[in-house]
Amino acid sequence: MKIQSFVLINWSASSTRSNGQHSDHSPVTGIFRIKGLFVNWTPFVHFTFPNKDSLGDLPTVIETPLILAFHSPIYHLSFQTKPILGPPREEDPSSQSGALLSFNTDSSLDPSAKESPSRPRTTIIFIALILLTCIALSAAFAFAFLFYSSSSSSSSSSAAAHNVSRPLKKLEKPVVLLISSDGFRFGYQFKTSTPNIHRLIANGTEAEVGLIPVFPTLTFPYHYSIATGLYPAYHGIINNYFLDPNTGEAFTMASPEPKWWLGEPLWETLVNHGLKAATYFWPGSEVKKGSWNCPEKFCKFYNGSVPFEDRVDTVLSYFDLPSSEIPVFMTLYFEDPDHQGHQVGADDPEITEAVARIDRMIGRLIDGLEKREIFEDVTIIMVGDHGMVGTCDKKLIFLDDLASWIEIPAEWVQSYSPLLAIRPPPGYAPSDVVAKMKEGLESGKVENGKYLKVYLKEELPSRLHYAASDRIPPIIGLIEESFKVELKRTKGKECGGSYGYDNAVFSMRTIFIGHGPQFARGKVPSFENVQIYNLVTSILKIQGAPNNGSSAFPVSVLLPSQ
Known about the structure:
Largest sheet: 8 strands, mixed
GO molecular function: hydrolase activity
Keywords: Membrane, Transmembrane, Transmembrane helix
Transmembrane segments: 124-148
Protein name: Venom phosphodiesterase 2-like
Number of helices: 13
CATH architecture of the largest domain: 3-Layer(aba) Sandwich
Number of strands: 23
Pfam families: Phosphodiest
Number of domains: 3
Strand order of the largest sheet: 11-10-12-6-13-22-7-23
Helix content: 25-40%
């Protein structure tokens, strides 16, 4: 039995376990710490139990005095439930704890009541109440000392048991389901009621302040970076749209030719190891590349009209196949809340409803897995691909305003916002173009000019890893959060949302939640999404392809195997 906190109302102490850290008592002003138990003196004290049946589990040596105190006429005991971190079984994070012992005074002790003619009797009652309270206080300390000392050995062995991954109960081999919710900015899970997502968080691992996307923080570069563990400069998808500098061919989000897609994505890695993978709308998965031929049974070509419910049900149906036919790696993709974010920005009721819809899909998935009795066996990794920030027409920078220093024709510009990319034609030195643009932007004569910084790509901050590919134009402009670049002024007005900014901008962060046998309960420091490739191959116990992630990263996040 684990106790989350204690409270004995009217003088005693409230306590809370401190992240599993145990230490000998050390006095702090008003607080005593005894083996992970914080005893805080307050006017009111309560004991909180996991459930009403816990009393029977208390150590026999202290059961009698506690029960006597609880059942005296001046105390009232009520029980509710609360999830306790530690046990390996799943628990519902929505339940809250409030078990409390309340002190009820007799009306004869009310100062506003008429003074009793029998003062000796009143004095005796008052002394009796004080003595009873002292007995209860003593019982509280006895409980604290005896419970923790009696459970220290068992809790130590239990903690040791929980420091390794849980064994599979029904599935014969590990299965990883990778879910992407497009445009799910970190923080959306707190602004909207998301009980199902929070169930995964409460019983799994969460990136503490979000997952850091690769630069540029755009949908296709991001998703393919997760799939390959490579930065965009190395896997080739350097933007959602771009031109091949050698052939002039255009890449779009509908380009299936393998020549664009470099590196080895997870589904190809799985097939190389003789394993099965199933992909549902993950960017790049439709490309027939290497050993991956996008099998009709397990590879879905993108179709935005497919209801979210059908996508979840299709993934669940894979678990109904014979054990040897179940794919060990699956992907699932939802367009929301990105679709709404483009139109209304990050703060709007439409975003709230979109996030709630994603949460319902996660609930549908959990229900389906639980009905098959495999929820605790399946590893679920839920991510977004980027954040979102509001933009409006008053935050615009016009390239035409630079005409006094340099004219930039539309055909030079391969993307405007939020990533400005310029490829001058032969005869124009990129360094000269950058110098003239900087002169104009820093002159104070270009509206909002100070919010655009232009670089030769090789001079970009190295943390962006955005220089090694010839597909990247030679001139890159980093735009301040919420601002946009356009070629010329128009009468049109636009307010909405955007992304693609510097990945150091916090609003670009998204979520990472890992739930499954190898994920401990708690939070880990934020990390870049290129680490997920090695995380998946580690869970599946296969050797991955060379990538930009750290081979040591999975050890810092996953529980060791038994």
